[in-house]
Design goal:
It is built from 18 helices and 23 strands. The chain is of the alpha+beta class.
């Protein structure tokens, strides 16, 4: 890419949520409601989308690569999925890779009948479980970790489907929010620590589930409550709602990056407006790391709320010094680096007349590899900014995520390789600062971080993973065994 060009793609260097889920039961045209909900969750996954519906007798499925609108915008597409129950999924792959066979919801015919599942998260012992299932004769149709859950349910010896599901979930570790459809109704459940989000709503007589509350806004539904960590919610076709808590009561650890970046600003996460939380993070950043500048400029679009908070707290004018074209297609629908970088779309432009001769502070939500931040700084200098300072509305991202977020391996994370000052030199800013972990906690309405029992999953910042990472440890052990010393024979 020509770094001197004022147009710049900023999407190749961001953390990506793996997916979003949506479910509706006892809804007229349930698949149409699901398609609307998925539209609102499109930011959580742009690689593929799928919907499965049920009409009381038969399950119907439609899946495709690309955006929701590419697959479900026509009346003909919706007509292919009749019924009063539907579940949908948008995907940005980490585990399993891309391809039609990994597009969710996944479906299987079990002894108890049809079983469809949409999964947000990542099972961190999926390989171990899969290897054991294959040894026992299981035949997998996909490379997705979600299919492990289906096989565990199928092979469970418990008599009822709900008991088989909870038996299966006791064997998995990691993070999950699940929407399951069976001939008996819909089941929604969340991992015992509540790492991945899941909320419940109502639309008339229909009960809805979604990754974010914004999906209810779009469908006209009313937000009821979040599905609690470790809770299993059952809804039948008579509208009866039951709740089970088979995993006991554990301190919750929701992903704090939902506040920082993943959720849409108009969603409510963990009881708080995401937009308000991001403004508060920006204000906290201004308190901790002030900058003597003329303008506060967000890196669009994710840095905007934090930049507003920074400007309001500091009294420095907020301006749009980088203009984004919203008429250029997204460039991150493909997860592989080689494809993403070869299909770069130039869609950001420095507002030269505004920044020329000015001291500016750029506000962004995070720094991952650092290459994008470096290009942004260079772009602003090329536009004539006299000083370019950089402030980040999250702590340094120094650790990979194993709970459903697409992060690079740790060796590619800038903060894993450098302290703050070398990072500043790398991105060529005049100064660089991140909000502190306690400041982040305070901004999202929590007490300072409790090191003995943190209130959020913040492993990407602290390295404090809340669950075992069985598959990762197994890979490390295998690598260590292959790296045995070789002694020369005299």
């Amino acid at each position: 890419m020509n770094l001197t060009n004022p147009f710049l793609d900023l999407d190749g260097d961001k953390l990506r949520e793996e997916c979003g889920v949506f479910g509706a039961i006892n809804a007229a045209d349930a698949s149409a409601v699901a398609a609307l909900g998925l539209h609102a969750l499109q930011h959580r996954g742009q690689e593929a989308a799928g919907i499965i519906s049920y009409d009381g007798t038969e399950f119907f499925a439609r899946r495709g690569l690309g955006h929701v609108a590419d697959n479900f915008s026509s009346s003909e597409a919706i007509a292919e999925m009749p019924g009063f129950m539907a579940a949908g999924h948008v995907r940005y792959s980490t585990t399993g890779g891309s391809g039609l066979r990994n597009i969710q919801p996944l479906y299987a015919d079990l002894a108890a009948g049809g079983f469809a599942v949409a999964h947000n998260g990542n099972i961190s012992n999926a390989k171990m479980l899969r290897d054991d299932l294959v040894k026992r004769g299981a035949i997998f149709q996909s490379t997705s970790d979600t299919e492990v859950i289906i096989h565990l349910v199928a092979t469970s010896r418990y008599p009822t489907l709900i008991d088989r599901l909870t038996d299966a979930l006791r064997m998995v570790e990691g993070a999950y929010s699940l929407i399951v459809m069976t001939p008996e109704g819909m089941i929604a459940c969340r991992d015992p620590l509540g790492i991945r989000p899941l909320v419940m709503g109502r639309l008339g007589d229909a009960v809805l589930f979604a990754s974010e509350t914004v999906a209810f806004d779009v469908t006209g539904a009313e937000f009821v409550r979040q599905v609690d960590p470790g809770e299993v919610v059952r809804v039948n076709f008579d509208g009866e709602i039951g709740s089970l808590r088979p995993f006991g009561n554990n301190p919750s650890r929701p992903c704090i990056f939902e506040h920082v970046y993943f959720s849409r600003p108009d969603s409510v996460f963990d009881g708080r407006s995401v937009y308000s939380a991001r403004k508060a993070i920006g204000a906290q950043l201004a308190i901790e790391s002030p900058a003597d500048v003329d303008l506060v400029i967000p890196v669009p679009d994710s840095g905007v709320p934090a930049a507003i908070g920074y400007a309001q707290q500091s009294g420095i004018p907020f301006e749009l010094g980088i203009i984004r074209s919203h008429y250029v297609g997204r460039t991150f629908i493909q997860p592989s680096d080689s494809i993403r970088h070869s299909s770069v779309k130039r869609k950001h432009n420095a507002n030269r007349g505004l920044v020329e001769g000015k001291r500016i502070v750029l506000i962004d939500d995070s720094i991952v590899r650092g290459t994008t931040s470096m290009k942004i700084v260079e772009m602003m200098r090329d536009a004539g900014a006299s000083e370019v300072h950089f402030r980040v509305a999250s702590p340094p991202t120094a650790h990979s995520c194993f709970y459903g977020v697409d992060t690079p391996e740790r060796s590619k994370l800038l903060a894993a390789r450098m302290e703050v000052e070398p990072m500043r030199e790398f991105i060529k800013a005049d100064s660089l600062a991140f909000v502190s972990i306690d400041g982040l906690y305070r901004a999202v309405g929590s007490k300072p971080r409790n090191k003995a029992c943190p209130q959020f999953c913040d492993a990407c910042f602290t390295g404090d993973y809340p669950t075992s990472l069985t598959d990762l440890h197994a890979r490390h052990e295998a690598a260590a065994q292959l790296s045995f010393p070789v002694h020369k024979v005299a």
